[in-house]
## 1
Amino acid sequence: MKCKILHESKGRIRVRFCMKRMTLKQADIAEYSLYAVSGVKRVQVFDRTCDAVIAYSCPRAEIISALSHFSFTDEKNISLVPEHTGRELNRCYEDKLAGLVLKRIVNKVIVPKPIRQVIAVFKAAKYIWRGIKCLLKGKLEVAVLDATAIGVSLLRGDFDTAGSVMFLLNVGDILDEWTHRKSVDDLARTMSLGIEQVWTKTTDGQELLMPVNEINKDDMIIVRTGSMIPLDGKVIFGDAMVNQASMTGESVPVHKSEGAYVYAGTVVEDGECTICVENTAGGGRYDRIVKMIEESEKMKSAAEDRASHLADKLVPWSLGGTLLTWLLTQNITKALSILMVDFSCALKLAMPISVLSAMRDCSRAGITVKGGRFMEAVAEADTIVFDKTGTLTHSSPRVAEVITFGGRDADEMLRLAACLEEHYPHSIANAVVSEAEKKGLVHEEFHSKVEYVVAHGISSTVDGERVLIGSHHFIIEDEKCAPPDERIFRHLPKEYSHLYLAIGGEVAAVICIEDPLRAEAADVIKKLHESGISRVVMMTGDNERTAKAVAEKVGVDEYRAEVLPEDKAAFIRAEHEVGRKVIMIGDGVNDSPALSEADAGIAISTGAAIAREIADITISADNLYSLVELKRLSSALMERIDWNYRTIIGFNGALIVLGVLGVLPPATSALLHNASTLAIGLRSTTELK
């Protein structure tokens, strides 16, 4: 592609594509393609001027090479662009604002005064009708205040003031809608399924693991306990309890059997089902997510609720103050100065925008937040509970050793373990499957139906013998499986976590798992303490020895070992009873009850699907510093909301006083009030610091 360099400085270059016109789609292709170049830190493409600004840290020659080889028709470049980028949405609202301002200028400069007055009356009808509808419903809300202010201005013949008020209200509405839609759009794009492979059933009844993008309509897929349903379809076999709150809002799992329809993004909490696919990858999920976010009650924080209720409660006071001032002074101008200024508009505009902008900032940091109330909970939390495996430790533990009993072959035991574990992917299961792949151990399906026992292990049958794999508690204590060599069993390496494999009621092998600690874990916990978290607790199903070693290394205040899922949830309930606000962080199926119980449940992005579904917040698996950033952004959000409250009440209160004293005429009060409302709203859209 031919380009012209317009400006250049160290690490930054501005170029112009040699073309007459650039479409929005072409701008997206250019932006995402250039951003994919190694060393490029930021790209902005301006479709109106066909310009691109590139910030980079790589050698300049690489940028020049990328630009010279770039093509809008390259399939690889096109594939980098997501389904929705937000560019079209932004253009739509930019055009709306520009059109509104242009019409205002034309109206003031060109249109004769008599015609302007007629237009003002015509436009005012909409606002007055809204106010009347509120009154007919027995409510005194902001719409009544707007209608009264505009109506009284028209009755006094002050058409310019009425027009200015309506113009500023229109601008505020557009900005409010734009910010809300953009925040929802950003969130929807971050809430991808993250499913790459899915189990399919072939025509001869065999199970095959396939990439999800290769699944076609009418293919059969199998989804088991703890897994997310990747595609829309109809159940043709099996029974399952499905958590579909993300799609339908239902608070309890729904039973799905033959003939029932299931949705992509919902989670099988219990059971197993075979699904005939109806919608392949894509399938309108983005639009459903947008609808879910917009309709969800979780979108409102307590601060937003307070602002909304306070705004409506202040309307009668504004009307009463207007009437009282007129009765005492008999001066309609002073009375109108109160009517032209209210706290409601700014409160209702600034608070939701602040929350949605904060959620947008979180998404940019790799943090997906399902609602403003959860950021508020994080800001107020004083206790944080960590799961160990996959959270304080890496989500990709490694197999260190396979210890066998009864003369069994280590590779064969690893092959069998991988065959079972691949059906219920979790961090330890992934380690077993990965180790088998490294050793080239092909593990074809040769067992019967696999059953998952939450927080314990897996059960199946091979050659008529019952095969179990799981924790010490499950294999030794619950199932009473005994090791054939007690001496070796007593001296298992203490530095590892242990996964037990039993065949026919006898321990056949112990798989030793290395659980590498995250390098940043200790520093993150230190920073969380510094940010106001007074109590950090680690809870794990591991034994006392392993739990104690990890707790000492990372610096938690206390730890609990060998806990069950219900124990974690019970601990959080006990904390609530003594008045503490609790955050829970986990990644597994067994963390789901605790994630649901906490004031804010946080899941790791690579964790179990059901954990991500139940959690209120999902953070990137790259490192735990996302937690520190989440805490910082949440605290900054609450500081912004407090600042908004103080500024709105202080500034508008001053305008009312100056109006009553006769210092400011109503038109000036209205202008300053609406200008301050927009200024606070625009400030609320900026990044949190």
Note: The first helix runs from residue 24 to 35.
## 2
Amino acid sequence: MTDFKVDSEKIGMGNKQIKVYSLLDVDSIGLPGNIRPYTDVSVNNAVISQDLLADIDHVPGVDSIVYNQVIFLPNQKREMMKLDKKKNRHASIPNPNNQIAVEDINAVQNELARNGKILVYAHYNLIVQTSSDYDFQKVTNSLENIFARYNIHISKRAYNQLELFVASFPGNCFRLNQDYDQFLTLSEAALCLMYKERQAVGDDSALKCYYTDRQGLPLAVDTSGKEGKKRYTNNSNFFVLGPSGSGKSFFMNTVMRQYREQDTDIVIIDTGDSYEGLCSYFDGTYISYSKEKPISMNPFKVTDAEYNENFGEKKNFLKSLIFQLFKGAEFPTKLEDAVINQTIVEYYEEYFHPFEGFNEEERKEMKTKLLLEDKKNGEYDKFEEELEERYGDEYEIEELEYKKLSDRDKRVSEKLKAVIEDKAATEGEKEVAQRALQRLTPEVIENKYLMRIEHQIDKIERQKKKLKVTELSFNSYYEFAVERIPQIMKQQNIQFNIHDFATILQAFYKGGENESILNNDIDGSLFDEKFIVFEIDKVKDDPVLFPILTLIIMDVFTQKMRIKKGRKCLVIEEAWKAIATPVMADYIKYLYKTARKHWAMVGVVTQEIQDITSSPIVKEAIINNSDVFMLLDQSKFKDKFDDIKATLSLTDIDCKKIFTINRLDNHEGRSRFQEVFIKRGQDGEVYGVEEPPECYINYTTEKVEKEAFKFYRKQLKGSYQHGIEVFVKDWKDSGLDCTSFAKLVMKEGKMYNQMNKK
């Protein structure tokens, strides 16, 4: 504050000038009869509420505005006495104006008496600073327009500029003159004129993603909703919705960049090269499907630890995978589920605990099961009828072999059985022993029932010994299942479409078209890689491969999630549509719920409104298990937004905020940006996504821009970072927008800094 020059209109300070606008003229109070603390504003055909004085923060041409709000609390008894005197004075001269004044004072006194309100003296002024050559009339016009919307008329007679300025110093408000700088009103009316907007505050969190508030000031936002001091939710899984052209890919690149910079392991399933640049920047692993080099893994491979600790979850994943191959989007029957479940359990049991034969206890259990099976199919009833004819009503099946036998005959019977079961005995010896045994126990052997049970157990034992599993892969499972399922069908007297099963799955077996997909061990280094992108755009139209690849990649993330410490994130772009089927619903639920327990988050990204309104699987398996929603510009969906509102459980206030995305007059002085609505639990706000040009060129999905940047990198033959720096410098030097600059580079076939060189 130097070189003061004060007149009745303004105060000069060197190359700056200020003017103090008193909000009200006490001689002609320009306040409406009713006032409220907020006003309604229409933005993009949506009505939102904002502070009554919110607009004063963007008066054009102004360097700074200070809004002073002073409220004096006078002696209430004295002020009431003054009001009574004033009322009596007006009442003494009967004319319409005085009568109105009396009615107004009565109304105020009733309000004070009935509702306990208090009288206050209030003063408000605006100190506006501009450059010395700026015309204050423009500021005056802007302020008058702002306040006129609320029927408030600012004072045009604030000639005591120095007095108002000095009285505005902190602690110096007693200098305000009560006669012409203060007005009497009710406390609540005075509070309505106070500035109630506040500066948005970021999150104090271990995970900080930087965006801006709606004025362009940077904020740290905990997009997980659960890692900060303020916990918005206990579930960090997220769902992103943005129509084509809304900047969805750009926004997701900002999220992934900031997650990776904060030591998060990231796995992305993409269908459009959206993350190619970011993956290169972080020197990650970019795996793109091609027929020459298909993505191949071995989801059937299970470690000892996984088998002992988490086999139930792995089994459910493999069931989902097998039914995706076998049934597609069709839901399996309970019988099919039971059969496949049994083959998976037995397959891994044989690998980890190879079968050597039944012990006595297991034979008894098998005997019980086979008896139960005979009871189910009626064979046991036939046998019981014959037994009733011979022994009457009282008998025990287990004791029939020893019925009416002496101890000596029992010992002989055991020896004869041993001869019959002895593989070294000749056929003649076995026949002699069988006839002798029949003489000892004619009723049992004559019906050959229990002997048949024993033979069945022996046969099952031989079959199990043949089912060897020496390595874990789809090939060995296919061989196991194709042999085992017919046995299960016969043993349990059930029907299973084994021929269709074998034929459909054969494409993934040895010699099949897709043999490599499920039979090659994954590169072990992927478990240590921090940033992995699986690009499967080339198979997105393949109804068989697309969901299978999506599933096995999700399984890779699941293993990574369990094994690795630290934060993990899986992002499924449009590929999630391939697995949004009834078959996959349970597995998706499992993945979402399990992620919460392992410091992991799963995010689904989509652009079609129908994707979230037409599929019950999306709502039940994905939406209900996501507590963080990120929505970009929804203008295209406004007429159909009720379905989205209901599906995502958005409030009316949320919707009003969403429809102001990219619609506010907040672009002045800011770089290129777009806005996004982020809701964590019950808390939703709109934030700005502002990134420097270095990030833009890394995120861009525009073909010509990507090609130009690749050309620069090829020419420079240096680090990725160096390529970005040179490209952006030339882009700025050119004065062109990025697309025009890229077209120029590709047309000339030269870097910009070489175009003018001879």
Note: The chain has 28 helices and 19 strands.
